[in-house]
User: Fold these one by one.
Assistant:
Number 1:
Amino acid sequence: MARSAWSSSTHVLDFTDPADTAEGVPALQRLLAGDIPFISRESRFVRKSGERIWCHITSIIVRNDDGTVLYGVKMIQDITERKSVEERLQQLFERVPVGLYRAAPDGTLLDANPALVQILGYPDRETLLATNARTLYVDREDRHRWTSQLERDGVIRDFAKQLQRRDASIFWARDTARAIRDAEGRLIGWEGALEDITARKRAEEVTRELAQVARELSATLELSRTAEQIVTAVMRLFGIRRAILFALDADAGLLRCVASAGSGAEEEWVGRTMPADSGLNGIALREGRPAWTADYSLDDARLTLPDWIRARIEAEGHSSGLAIPLTAAGEPLGALTLRDVCGRHYDDEELRQLSVFANQAALALRNARLYEEARQERREAEVLADLAGTINSSLDLSTVLTRVVEGARELCASDLARLALPVPGGNEMIITHSCGARYTGYATLPIVPGRGLSGQVLATGRPCRTDDYLADPRISKEYAAVAEIEGAVSEMVVPIRTGDRVEGLLYVTNRTLRPVTDRDERILLRLADHAAIAIRNARIYGETERRRRAAESLAEVGRLLSTSLEVERVGERIVESLRGLLKSARVVLMRLEPGGDLRVVAGSGHTPPATSPNGVVLAGTNAVGACVRERCPVTTSDVLADPRITVNPADIPEFAESDHRSVLAVPLLIKDGVIGALSLRDRTGRVFEAEEIQLAQAFADQAALALENARLYEDAERRRKAAESLAEVGRLVSESLDPAEVGQRIVDAVLALLRVKVAGLFQLDPDSDNFVSLAEAGDLGSLGDSKVVLAPGTGMVGLAAREGRAVHTRDNLDDPRITYTPDVRARLTTALVDVPYRSALALPLRFKGAVVGGLWLRDVPEREFSQEEIRLAEAFADQAALALENARLFAAVQRQRDRLLRRAARPPRAPGDRRKT
């Protein structure tokens, strides 16, 4: 405390900071005049050392009875430390990026920091404080619920509500506040923190929508419906004017519109095509990332577009565009194009969300395509099996060929199908059967070598095709008038052959821009094979009685072929029929294995076959090996004495002891490819006649169809199961954030579909770069006792991650490319004693180019993996990578949310609180 007389030569103002002197003098004058009883204020003082300190000053005047001033009393308290704390708190209040406020119960705003002014869109703090908080609410009920909870609980956390800015725009806010009460407990106001969470709310909404879209996409495997769901969903999620889905036809180099949604005429888009390298789509596919333009009307050299697209853009007024490539397992599937008003901009968050959606759409599109291909192949197998039954259940060649034409039109999805046969006694052909034709003069229209597309097939004996019949310079114009009547655009013609002779022609024609494909050619050649069999059977049926009996046997086999896809059952009927017709001692049906060996499928008779105990004839040996090599029948009266035939040394003792060394071997041919052989044995010295060889070849054709149909059906079933499993895994990925659950479903599916012994899924630990086993299935042996951890770069998974592709080895323990840590090698060596599965396939799990894990398959040492099996494994690897990434993103969001909750839960410090910040 300081006591001073006002007349003293030294005054307290002499020690006051000059900046505060002007403020203190008027108050002192009022005190001296008796207008106020005392002075209480804060001011800065200057010490003798020159240091400035904050002090709280209380001044009073002591007067005598007549009111004369005797002296003044000043109480000075050093508050420097408190002022420092208050200044830091004020700076925090001013600078924190979260909106802070104080308000009265009636809604009057008492204080607000700059962040709140900015969030609410007001020009300055004073303008905001002049606004009542009640007017900021979009829903007044939110205000009622907020105040009720604060009055009841005293605090409220993370209250989400919609507010409106000064410009009337609406946003989502998250409010954490507490009630302020006086010493008697009366409510005197609120204070709290407000955060703009509009972007987060939208991201959450889009995430939920994406999950729903993923469930919708995984619920269907129909290609057209999947495409429609994709464009409809992207319209709904991102509020654009038009969405178009283009599917890539890599063979034709075209993008074909398969679905469109939005304002304008959708029929003007669907079915139209554009070059795959043009426009934004071409840029997106070429660069593997989204491509964007604010205005198509600008003179941009990149945007070379077909006239029809430019016309649609002008008509619909959607001059901004964004193209997103759709890829799965590194394979481009097409592009998703978004159209909107001129200048539409896509921020980074929208592009990220669109990329996530594109990944989901690409997987759904590929699953649908796989399912569609499986469905088509299954239908193809069914049609071919039905056709085989028709061939062999009817002696009417016209009935069979009509079914061939109908099957060609159905399986190739063409507008027109035709079949031509030779004119008896002439060198020309005419169309005898058609389906979907407009032209009525085929019965008198000769087809001769060299004229038109069919003439080229007659001249060369090879399939021919064109994507534009009338404009193709290779095609002569003798049949141009017929092509115009038919509206022919693309066309394919394949020969119907029996041996080296062309017995007929099979056509398919499209009246639109859809080109014929390699798949169409494959189907037509199979149908042509059936037609050739029907023609050959018809020729046989018209001959002698003995051939009639042979034809009846063929028909019986054909009926069995049409009702059963069991190769063993059909094979047994074939060998029994052929042995009875040709009176042979033994007939054996064999299938060609990938390595060239022949494995027995069915046999009839008592003479032991010249095969190893497991029913295998080594590649290139004996008569069957010779017929496979030469792709034509091989006959000999004594197999041991024929220099053309190399007998397997292991079979020589059996042949030497047998008096049945006469052999007829005929190949099983499908499209000039050998898939097996029929072997007939009889007494030594027997010579098989030409008609007997021809009959054996007819049965071989039936056997080839049986093997091929069974293979097609098996492939179709495998693809169907694969597509269904992928769809199921896709649904699980969209519904579960547990990578272990999804991983287990994936390894179980891969184990069943690829028929491997062991399947394992590894996850990359980002902290250690180790690969840690996440899920396993199959016969693990001792490896199943605990999780396997692979150090960086080790094991099959490390090799696959290093090379960035699928890798295969016949011996995963002794392959020099593969390294293991000593403990893992020891465990693997021990496990392989009980479960010797050394052949292995490993694939990296990649998400946006980064390796996040690996898929490891093991099987017996001789196991090889086809490209189709590798592609299927890659599809499951993509699903696994997506599951791991979804789980990682979810965990990151949870961690961020927890941090924000902890920060928001800290109570604000009251004025005067001297605790260190």
Number 2:
Amino acid sequence: MCATASPRITVRICDGLRSLRSGVAADVLRAWNDNPFAVRRIAIVFGSSQGASLAARVLERAAIDSGLTSFIMPALTTASAFWLDQFGARRRADPILREAILARELRRMEAEGSGLPFKIHQGAHQAIIALSGEMDDFGIDLDAFEKTCDAAFAGIIDDPGPQRMYQLSRFVVASLRGLAGTLMELGLADPAAVRRAGSATPSRFDTVHIVDDLPIGDLKSFAGLPGLTRLVIWTTARQVRAGTIDRLRGLFDGLAVEHAAATNTRPRLLVSATGSCFIRRDREEDLLRTALLIKQMYRSGQIEDLDQVAVVFSRPLPYLYLAKRTFAMAGVPFQAIDNYPLAIEPWAGAVDLILELAAGGFRRADGIALHASPYFDFAENAAVGSRLATAELDTELRRRGFVSGQDGWEGSGLPMPALREIADESTGIADKAGVLLRLIQRHGKKDGGGEGEERSRGAVIAVLSGIEAAYREARETERVSCAGFRAILRRWIQSHTFAPRLGDAGVHLVQDNAARHGDFSHIFFVGLVADEWPRRPRRSILYSQAFLSSAGWPSDSSVAATQRASFLDLIDSAASAVGLSAFVLEEDSPVSLSPFVELVETSLEPFPAPADDIARRIADEATAISLGLLTPEENGAWKSLRSARARRARIEQQRFAAQIGPRDPGLLAVSEIDRYLTCPFLSFVRLLGLSREDDPEEGLTAPQRGRILHAVLQDFFQEWDRSAGGGARAREVQPSDWPEFRQRFMLVLEKHLGSMPARERELERMRYEGSSVSRGFLEKLFQAEIQQETPLRARLLELPFEGTFLLKGESDAVRTGLKGRMDRLDIRVDDTVQVIDYKLGKKPDPRVATQLDIYSECLKQLPPPTALPAVVECDARYYPFGEDEIPTSARREKSAQGSLDRAVAAVKGMTAGIFAPKPYDPIVCTWCAFGGLCRKEIKDT
């Protein structure tokens, strides 16, 4: 049913956004010339506050160009701000409060027996709220929606699918009516009520200009606004072809359609040597290289004024926080207008540290990160909160082998009572928000962060206060986990925006829906990838798109046509040139190019752009000086520095290759020889005393698990051999011993796992016991023991040795000091010996494994074990617990040819102080934690 037509409603059709902007400005200036004070009674309504800010600059420039020395600006506002102003001082429902009330209403209905075939969760609250907002925007009444649902689902009784949809629809409609009733009882108004009440109040404006594609609900309300004498809806020819005029004629009868003056010029398209769209690796490189391209075009005179340049993106995150770093690196000033997301502020991340610790089981790394945060002071004295104290705490926790758990943080300075309350899953959203709020108010630093950080701290506090107040007023007390609360808080922080102005000069960083109102000479589009250009339609989890289209929602095809028209209009709005760029990787996953790129490639005249990386790589000084990238004075300084570097190059070459000169290695650990053969630089790192940072997500580190394995096996075999009753005599393992073998082993294991947190203890127990899909260490060990070919006289466990030994290979030899610890030395009844080396993972690569050969050589030169003749030859084998099974052959493990020759070369290299980054296999560099120190890539280049 069409609304009552009014001759005061006019549609102005422009050929593009430049003519739209100039048409609005001309209309305002005509009103000024007729009566300057009448401009106060003109409102221009935008879809975003960013667009209003940019439009103000256009109007100011138009007034100056017209020779005006003074000018009264009309009201530049958004639709939501307009209706709130019309609504007056009456109280409206906060979005958080609406969701809290709906959550309580849904829980009440579910408890009363709603008959729903599924369980209500947090996503349902959001989906129903979103559905309600879309109904308001599209002008769909709740009663009409209910009738559509009944017509679609109620009459089908022999199909369970429509029956479930009917139950769902009754539930959704009832919940929205319950929400509306509760709001009415509390004297609150939701957005639709605000719009209805505002449109029933006489307008203080005579003329309203609509310059964005507003929802139907807004257009209907504006058309019925009492006291309004003129409503002008501005659109473009492309939008008309996309169906805008048809939608408007469906709303209003007797529209007056006018055509604005045409703007015939079109911008040129910047193209690179590889195509019309610049392709970069990721978002950060995309933004950085775009900034460098702008800088080069500005210095060469192709861009006259940076204030007339816009970098346009589809979504503000992550571009706004990436811009701080990338534009600073490029040396390009920039400005961002309005709607600055709270989620990119450091205080949002600081609060998330608290929730990360509480939700993640109080892991060591999470607690240390919170303890070291510069935004909190958890200590009574300043020293405990210092970085030094944090490092000491981390060292102490590592020494104790602490991984996670609440008990280990006592005495650390962290507010554990509050953190326990936040982690407690028996409390509700309001309680958790209140505890977190008071924790921040008490421990959050209020000074030293500058005005921006104080503002973001206040915004985080405001969000938490709003959540606590809303859920208490709604009397919603449902229990929630810390992870669930974290998701809720993150969502509200992400929806919260500032309205500051970041920077006051330079390139504009602006979202696409606002850029249409700015007057720019050059527009650079970044991030032109699928799912963002065009934006992926937001889907309802409640209903299919086909059903929603039948209920009055716009179809996918009409939305897509509108987005294509908007993009092309924005392309044409640049006065001089446009540039397109995209990236190929999003978090190391490939992404596709936007289909919008093809719309532009053939429609604009190409304009060759300079190489966008010339600012970083200039082949000769003359080119750099001619481009203005280097002054003659800077060139002279650079030449002097380069000459000095050349003189030092020969001196630095060996140091660059980690050659520290001859040294006495002292007693070398046998394992250090294998480490040197893996990559000499790893030995250098160990020589410097550096350690690899543990990954808290993996629980115990590999060295920690290895120490546990050695200790468990040592204690177990000592206990097993004692059970034979023969003193130091080794007890054999027979197949029938499995129950006793397992029982004794698990008792020893539990003793070593007893002090661990429950989660880590369970994981380690599973490694040894195994599971339904994998064999455990215990079963592999038992199988290896029962297949010993020769009975044992004794097991010598964790046998240390040290001394000076001769390592003699096939072609070279060296005498050096060695120390080591043999995991196990088996003495057989035939007086032969066998060395066993435990490995937590798989057998080492034969190309770098020398331990067994070195052990054999050292045994020949050591005094013989008690009551044994001198060792002439011995077998050696690995127990690799990470493999499917432990090899059972008692014969000596086969070593790679020249194993001792490589060991000799490694000892000589360490003695000469040669620690070049030279891994035996490039795969080593993928897991090495010290790749940033070795500079191998620079050296190779």
Number 3:
Amino acid sequence: MNKKIIFAAAAAAVIFFIFNFITGIFLDFEWFNSYGHSGAFWTLFFTEFNVHVIFTIIFFLIFLLNIGILRLIAGRNFIRIPVQIRSMNLKILQKPGLIVFLIIISAGLLISYIMGSLASSFWKEILLFINRTGFENMPVEPVFSNNAAFYMFSLPFYKFLYGWILGSVILLAFFSGAFHFFNGTVVNDYGKISFASEARSHLSLLLALFSAVYGFGFKLSSYSLLLKERGKFFGAGYSDVNSQLFGYKICMILCFAAAVIFIFNIFKKSIRIIFLSAVIIIPSIFAFTVVIPAVQQRFFVVPNELDRERPFIENNIRFTRSAYDISKIEIVNFKNEASLTLSDIEQNRTTLNNIRLWDWKPLQQTYKQLQELKPYYTFMDVDIDRYMIDGNKVAVNLSAREISTEKLAQQTQTWVNKHLIYTHGYGLVMSRVDTVTPEGLPDMIIRDIPPKSSIGFTAERPEIYYGEHSNGYIMTNTAVTPGEFNYPSGDTNNYSVYDGTGGIKVGGFFKRLFFALSLKDLNILISTNIKSDSRILFRRNILDMVNTLTPYLMFDEDPYLVLSEGKLFWIIDGYTVSNQYPYSTPYITKSGKKINYIRNSVKVVIDAYNGSINYYISDNTDPMIITYSRIFPTIFKNAQSMPEDIKSHLRYPETLFSVQSSILLKYHMQDANVFYNNEDLWNIPEQIYAESRIKVEPSYLVTKLPDEQSAQFIMMLPFTPANKDNMVGFLTANCDRENYGRLKLYSLPKQSMTYGPMQIEARINQDAEISKQLTLWNQKGSQVIRGNITVLPINSSLLFIEPLYLKADTSEMPELKRVIISFSDKIVMAENLNAALDIMFSGSISSTEDITEPSENMDSSSKELIKQAYDSFQKAEEYIKNGDWENYGREIKNVKNILSRLNSM
């Protein structure tokens, strides 16, 4: 092949690589800079770049030093050219020594670059080490008396440094061995390997270096014992502290002694010394680090395991509870008296009016059928939050109506449509969690396009440019006519021009060229619709945004939408995590990440229209977020600067709550004896959802707990004993501002049994009337979907509520058709929650009978029913005088239900 063609191809490849690298940096810098975080970009960039360069130089200097020492040892015989190569008389080998030297230097540069690249991937450990802070409010570990900061910030850096140096020594040894082999100073003569004197000296030097570095590794291994996986508990145990640590000290001394011997052998040049040292040291290391600790564990610890391991189990319990922040949980006794009356129900109407009857999965399907309106709209998720409605705290479901350009008709999926016209979603849907229309559909608070509200909520800026979608980049303020598609309006469409601050101005030719190259789209450069003041909005998926801006944090995979002062915002919970907290048992997240420390230290608020990102520190006691805020001072803000209305919508995150609940299953046991024997191990209960058996999920509720003065927005999850279905307690987390983050574990009486969710499910299946009705529905071309069961604490009693949805085989729109409630030994199924509660607590109809069916067994007399109707009517009159239409409607509905039952007697 022509040399010019080869050279041109190589040059083109190099130019392409460099240009691709530059355009990638350009795109990231412009994006960071558009948010005012160019400082954070350069911190991330130069940390990686500088680490790469510094460690490349360090390795290359070590490499040159290795070559220099070899030259010093070998003298003029540094490079030996085999006779076979010299006899070839190749023109290129007229100066063979120079050629070999250049090859060595080139190989050294390549290896140095690789070692620098490996080091740059540890930029986070380096930054945390340099900017480390103390864990002053955390317990000090009892083995080495180190603050947790040593394990979280310093030890990872030392491990990186040790691994990099050890890897460098091993690479030098491999390279040196290859050099000696090709140079003829190491010869394989019919299976017998012989070493020249310079090779022996060089090998001794490398072994001395390896032994010294390896010796320091035993010191790091000592600290790592506190992060050791064990059978009964996590962290260092009796044999680790009393045998393994001693073994590591002996091995460290042996390695340093071996290094001294190998240095001596540089001058002695004896292979026998090397061989004898290896024969003595390697078995000794195995004996002191494996055999002796194993013998002590088997014959001294195992026969008396609980007594020997008790203090170490207590360490594991204390540090695990600290790492997951569950040591602050308050224990409250819950009597579960099962003594609710109709009067109690009336007094807790705020709670009962906020029961989540609509699960997000069937509700999302219903939203899609009723409110997507056009094929290109989509609801990615359904969130739950609370809003003040008529002076009451009300739980609602809401979802953003986002656009999906992939759903455009195939013939309309042009570049102009996907990037210039169909640029944003529009509006949201909101419905109460507890109410249902007569048709079994959600009771909409906000609906349609443009958004219409039945209670006066307004969305002044309903356009959604940033969200959970996976659409690509878009261009705004372009010359395309009539503008960006805003929303459908009758036979025509409404168009708009973007008026926000999101994105980056395209600017002149060269900037457009860079955008075109960075995004690999020539249309950006050649489209006549793009002007100099047009804006390009890319990286619009909100999770992609926060992961790019702050890759060192872990984020909740379920962002939620908030309507605040007429604008739409996304809130994402950010976590600081680590797997280096001493004595703390690890947890595997859904994404497969292994952690043993977590804090919800950041609340991220993203404007759905402008894309502005604000990070607010929500936990000032977390040393990790304090350290990150030192490294990136422009990113994090104080929580006090968060808008007040946004504060009212903060929630205790489900991910953190789930992690803490999982850890609590075992680590609620704080007595070492009980913990060791797993005497009180818990499980997260199961339920029947649709037709499958699944774990109960944490649920958000507005409820008044027995020891609280008013209704609170909380998250709740029940617990059952291991391998049993009865409930033993439930955990709650307060979400409201005044008590945010307050965790309470309500313990149920141990002397009596409390039904658990799966036992309630079994009783529903065994109920003749309910079972017959479910079978009938499933046989008429429809499918019954059993919803999530809610365990609701009221006063000192527990109420179980399960919604039933009906979905026709020919439809994807589930309807809420029945509500099942269980209290004490009774089960009721009715058309809605109020009717079910009325039946359950008035005692007028048998517990398993639907309100639409005639009743044959009445427990209360007609006079009692008439009195109840009269009382409800009087309440209705009082409500109408005060203009309280919501409670007026409820009381009138109650009168109607009572009269219907009287009519059926």
